[in-house]
Design a protein that fits this description.
mainly beta; Jelly Rolls; 2 helices; globular; binds N-(carboxycarbonyl)-S-(naphthalen-2-ylmethyl)-L-cysteine; binds fe (iii) ion; broad specificity oxidative DNA demethylase activity
Length: about 220
């Protein structure tokens, strides 16, 4: 299905050849909205730079003592953190002791629109976890279950270098499908797919024209 979502946008120079969004169903209640974030790529990157200036990307430590290969920060009322004490959401950045930067309006608007296109109509995210992958960084197969309201979906936005996303089942040993996530792709996972195992394969060498040798993924959640 193709949606001409960008038709009639006023700025003809910036949107001379807008990417068309297409919707791909990848699970019972999960969809990839290809290129849904492309039209706002510059504003999204500016916002991420502003967030990272106040709450820097850092590699956190798992309860088991391993340093994660992806660097992370957060915006919103609550941020996801891990250390030797465990995984949790908290209102304060452990690095600075200050509240996480507010969730930018363009972030929230994008997340709500994407959720609604996927059939989740009252999404009000309070947390946004931002992951930064350098070449070789990965995220092992895991479930996201630290959020209080698991009836609400997760919305994810990918920018920069492409990565292979692993989409597994409800049990770790279930077979997983590989999905290439590219700059501008937005994914919505909810309902019966909300607790499916997932991960990211090690980022292959390369370079993105806007973000360099990096991939950035940010995910919106109802955590509190
Ligand atoms: C499927 N991030 O931050 S986004 C994470 O690309 C995370 O950085 C990956 O997994 C990344 O927790 C993948 C995709 C994602 C996020 C949450 C999900 C897929 C999900 C929750 C349930 C099912
Ligand atoms: Fe996850």
């Amino acid at each position: 299905m193709n949606l001409d979502l960008f038709e009639g946008l006023p700025d003809e120079t910036e949107n001379a050849e807008p990417e068309k969004t297409s919707i791909e169903k990848i699970g019972e209640q999960s969809v990839v909205l290809r290129q849904f974030a492309s039209a706002m790529q510059h504003d999204l990157i500016t916002a991420i730079d502003q967030i990272a200036a106040r709450a820097p990307f850092r590699q956190m430590v798992t309860p088991g003592g391993y340093r994660m290969s992806a660097a992370m920060t957060n915006c919103g009322t609550l941020g996801w953190v891990t250390d030797r004490q465990g995984y949790r959401y908290q209102a304060f950045d452990p690095l600075t002791g200050k509240p996480w930067p507010a969730m930018p309006v363009i972030f929230k608007t994008l997340a709500i629109q994407a959720a609604s296109l996927a059939g989740f109509n009252d999404f009000q995210p309070d947390a946004c976890l931002i992951n930064e992958y350098a070449i070789g960084a990965k995220m092992s197969l895991h479930q996201d279950k630290n959020e209080k309201d698991l009836s609400q979906p997760v919305v994810s936005v990918s920018l920069g270098m492409a990565a292979t996303f692993l989409f597994g089942g409800l049990q770790r040993q279930d077979k997983s499908q590989k999905i290439l996530l590219q700059h501008g792709d937005v994914v919505v996972w909810g309902g019966v797919d909300r607790l499916r195992y997932h991960g990211i394969l090690a980022l292959k060498a390369g370079c993105h024209p806007l973000l360099g040798e990096r991939r950035i993924n940010f995910t919106f959640r109802c955590a509190g």
